[in-house]
Amino acid sequence: MMGLTPQETKNLGIGAALIALAALLPLFDQGFYLSISVNIVLYAALCTAWALFSGPTHYVSLATAAFYGLGTYSVGLGIEVLPYPLLLLIAAAIGAVMAGLVGAATLRISGVYFVIFTFGLAELVRQLVTWTQTKVSTAMGLYVFTEMTESHIYWMLLALTGAVFLTSFLIARSRLGFAMTVIGNDETVARHVGIDTARSKIILFMISGAFIAMAGAITAPRYIYIEPPSAFNPMISFLVVIMALLGGTRRLWGPLVGVIPFTIVMDFISSNFPNHTMIVVGLAFLAIVYLIPHGVTGLLEKVQARWKQRSAPAAVAKEKPA
């Protein structure tokens, strides 16, 4: 791994300063703005963890709900017998193991087959949890009673988001990151140059699954009562994909660009037009795919490239002697 360039050092410093500034929010507000900020930070962590794998590989995973739900249920099942920090680690381990098993079974396939499989996986896990609960405990959900407040959850999610960003940054600079870039450009070429494509994808999928499961575990106390339809809600998977694609997955901070405006819009729609949420999600997905397939960051880069292209001849003509 190479040393940091001055620009990278500056970017890391700016990122750390922004996280520290965001951490002050609960000191000034305990109501609406804190509540919506929890949603923003939650989806920032989920989208960045999703883009960690799906960004470089171009594999669209709809398994987010499965990892997230396993994280929430890890806390729901163990909150009365194990310390909460230990449950967070257990949730991350369960998410990583699940991702490893799924990856070993499916990452040799690609395209629409992978999308369908991951969507089916989330539904399968939800049905299995529902069936097990009704057969074993005759109850549909679990109570999660803790002393944690909205502020504690916000700080933990903020720390997790910072950890996901830092991990993504370090991976992008590592051999694994280079391998994933080659795989994303052309997987056949990657195999020909000696990259173990299946192993690389499984490792990255496990890291992504672990972070998503930990986000679910952190959020579990917020629900107080969790049940399969909410913990394994497929809407979580779709929203993560839409927000990440809206922002763009080519840049580390790209998903964040999509998370902030879309979370605010969804909060407004769900509050004022609760029966039209799915319509907004569907329209947003169509608009992103047709109008900005590379996201807002991709659009900005395109505009910047055109601007430079137009400016270059003018600069050359200006330098020519009369």
What keywords describe this structure?
mainly alpha, 14 helices, 322 residues
Describe this entry's structure for a reader.
By secondary structure, the protein is an all-alpha fold. The chain is built from 14 helices and 2 strands, in the order H-H-H-H-H-E-H-H-H-H-E-H-H-H-H-H. A two-stranded antiparallel ribbon has the order 1-2. Helix 4 packs antiparallel against helix 9 and helix 11 packs parallel to helix 14. The longest helix has 27 residues. The protein is globular and about 80 Å long.
Secondary structure category = mainly alpha
Strand order of the largest sheet: 1-2
Radius of gyration: 21 Å
Number of helices: 14
Topology order in helix (H) and strand (E) letters: HHHHHEHHHHEHHHHH
Q: Runs with pLDDT <50, length 5+?
A: none
Q: Approximately how much beta-strand content do the residues carry?
A: under 5%
Please give the largest β-sheet: 2 strands, antiparallel
Strand runs, count: 2
Instruction: State the separation between the terminal residues, measured CA to CA.
Output: 49 Å
- Fraction of residues in helix: over 70%
Secondary structure elements and pairings:
Layout: H1 6-22, H2 32-57, H3 64-78, H4 84-106, H5 112-136, E1 142-143, H6 150-172, H7 175-185, H8 187-192, H9 197-223, E2 225-226, H10 228-231, H11 234-247, H12 254-272, H13 277-291, H14 295-319
Antiparallel strand pairs: 1-2
Helix pairs in contact: 2-6, 2-9, 2-11, 2-12, 3-4, 3-5, 3-9, 4-9, 6-9, 7-9, 11-12, 11-13, 11-14
